[in-house]
Amino acid sequence: MLEARGLVKSFGRTRALTGVSLEIAEGEIVAITGPSGSGKSTLLYCLAGIIRPESGEVVLDGRRIDTLAEAELTKLRRESFGVVFQFGELVPELTAAENVALPMRFNRHGRQESMNGAADRLARLGVSDCADQRPGELSGGQLQRVAVARALVTGPRVVFADEPTGALDTLGGE
Ligand SMILES: Nc1ncnc2c1ncn2[C@@H]1O[C@H](COP(=O)(O)OP(=O)(O)OP(=O)(O)O)[C@@H](O)[C@H]1O
Question: Where is the ABC transporter domain (predicted)?
């Protein structure tokens, strides 16, 4: 379903990816491990269409996505991908529920429907109590669960988690 072919990406003189290839099948859960700074996040960002590789290809369902125009890539990210970022990346001014509802709002769902979807996801992850709190008031584990809820709320085809084992365990249950 998702394939990387010979991905190369550098930041200045740092060669983060030097020709990475992998294939991920539908329904498969893949964990990429390696030392700090070895390029795991960079690979994830390339696969998720957040950054573009210098060379190589990213293919989703047989369609090359790394060369899509920005607007098309944004649409694909919104509709097909969910991402749990390493540091949560929740919007500090919004409540947990509003953060989780955001991807649905971006996909043009109404406010109430989006908030209902968020409440459902937060409940399934056991953090309904956090719904009205802002990220600064949450514990590390609660933040992680809210970030997972936000990644899952649109029912994406692919979920990427740039996280150690905690988020992976949570996602496995979903
Ligand atoms: N935006 C950037 N600008 C400059 N260098 C970067 C950037 N992003 C990553 N790098 C460098 O690329 C290399 C790979 O970084 P990356 O974040 O992909 O590693 P990682 O394996 O995910 O690390 P960790 O396990 O510590 O999260 C590192 O040397 C890092 O310093």
Answer: 2-171
